[in-house]
Amino acid sequence: MKPFLKIGDEADLDEINALYNHYILNSVATFDLTPHSLADRRHWFEQFENDSPHQLWVLREPKQLLGFACSQPFRAKAGYEDTVETSIYLAPS
Asked: For the residues of 3-48, what is the DSSP string, one character each?
């Protein structure tokens, strides 16, 4: 089966968290210094809404996450309310 793109949901969070933590521990792709817990990741997930500029998309094979992309609020200041920060993380393989 070919990889497919879908809106991320709570069932993807464990694999998203593992992938993100890989980059915390093995690269300089993120400015985080310590791995995130699954509880942290659930809190992060709450910001995404399908009808907003804050989106979470995942690329999957049936049994494996290949990567994820998201758009999040850039800054909490009013002047940035229409600005998003985008991130893309791909499985190292």
From this structure: -EEEE--GGGHHHHHHHHHHHHHH-SSSS--SPPPHHHHHHHHTT-
- Residue 33 in tokens: 């210094």
Query: 64 pairs with which residues across the strands?
Result: 61
Residues in the chain: 93
9-46 pLDDT, tens digit each: 999 999 999 999 999 999 999 999 999 999 999 999 99
pLDDT score recorded for residue 1: 79
Sheet harboring 4-7: ordered strands across? 4-7, 56-61, 64-73, 84-90
Q: pTM of the entire structure?
A: 0.91
